[in-house]
Write a structure and sequence with these properties.
By secondary structure, the chain is an alpha+beta fold. It has 2 domains: about 90 residues, Phosphorylase Kinase, domain 1 (2-Layer Sandwich), CATH 3.30.200.20; about 140 residues, D-amino Acid Aminotransferase, Chain A, domain 1 (2-Layer Sandwich). Strands 8, 9, 12, 13, 14, 15 and 16 form a 7-stranded antiparallel β-sheet that branches. A 5-stranded antiparallel β-sheet has the order 1-2-3-7-6. A two-stranded antiparallel ribbon has the order 4-5. Strand 10 and strand 11 form a beta hairpin. It is globular. The protein starts with 12 loop residues before the first strand and ends with a helix. The model has no long low-confidence stretch (mean pLDDT about 95).
Length: about 290
């Protein structure tokens, strides 16, 4: 069953994000991953079948794998959900997660391991990304000498904006900024190493962190096709935008249109919807989540 929007009568909804619906369960939150897809920070009108389940399964998979960083997950097992959610079991099964409440930090923690997307565009202009100087002569989709941390703002609506390390420190404080930078790089390296054993290159990704009882914890999602660029290792070529297991397929289609990347977003052809769904499902299958 495709899901674009969700209300749970009697359960307070706190927010609707680009993809997730967030409900208040009292001590905890309920995150429901819909099948919505966003591109260029705009929500598209068409659902991607199976997408919400892929995001939830992959996030749960990585949360359990990375025992070196505390995360917000309590359970994605409907049998362990509060009794108040029992009437909605069919809608929630496979796409929902009960999580601990944390105060989100106002930054996106982006890690780049390859030259792609907005990073590639910025590099062409300045030979740097977010103020980080890079060697001359790098090409599109080339592996960087080492992964770099390039934070951005976290926009409720509209476009996230890249920020400098100094701006990141000003937003969250030096100690927290250094902790999330170190954690982001460590999670990325661990995820990239595992994904490579499954034939996937993680070109870049973004993490979100929150504060719970004074501690920094990993929240939201982790290394999914929504938050990352996943490239098939056997098709990776330097100098071109590689095929991918994520929404880059949708972005590439949208780039062919005469659209200014502001709402309302255009409808997607059936072929783009179908192929995007297959790419998400292949990613979760390859990773064994």
């Amino acid at each position: 069953m495709d899901l674009l929007n969700l209300d749970l009568p009697g359960i307070p909804k706190l927010a609707s994000g680009k993809v997730r619906e967030i409900f208040d369960l009292g001590e905890h939150l309920l995150l429901v991953a819909t099948d919505r897809i966003s591109a260029f920070d705009c929500i598209l009108p068409d659902p991607i079948p199976g997408k919400g389940g892929v995001l939830t399964r992959l996030s749960s998979f990585w949360f359990r794998k990375f025992d070196f960083v505390e995360n917000h997950m309590v359970t994605m097992d409907p049998a362990r959900f509060p009794e108040t959610l029992a009437p909605f079991k069919e809608q929630l099964c496979g796409r929902s997660m009960v999580v601990r409440k944390a105060t989100p930090l106002p930054v996106e923690c982006v890690v780049r391991g390859y030259l792609a997307g907005s990073g590639w565009k910025e590099y062409q202009q300045s030979r740097s990304i977010c103020g980080i100087r890079l060697p001359d002569g790098l090409r599109q989709a080339e592996k960087l000498p080492e992964p770099i941390f390039t934070p951005s703002t976290k926009a409720v609506s509209g476009h996230d904006m890249n920020i400098s390390w100094e701006e990141c420190r000003n937003l969250v404080g030096t100690s927290v900024a250094e902790e999330v930078r170190a954690l982001s790089l460590r999670i990325y390296e661990a995820g990239r190493a595992f994904a490579e054993t499954r034939g996937i290159l993680v070109a870049d990704t973004k993490f979100e962190f929150g504060i719970l009882d004074g501690r920094v914890i990993l929240i939201d999602e982790c290394l999914t096709p929504d938050s990352s660029r996943f490239w098939p290792a056997d098709l990776h070529q330097i100098g071109i935008s590689p095929p991918s297991f994520d929404k880059q397929f949708v972005r590439d289609y949208l780039e062919t249109l005469d659209w200014d990347k502001t709402p309302p977003a255009p409808r997607l052809p059936d072929s783009v919807i179908h192929n995007t769904s297959l790419k998400y499902l292949e990613a979760v299958s390859r990773l064994g989540a």
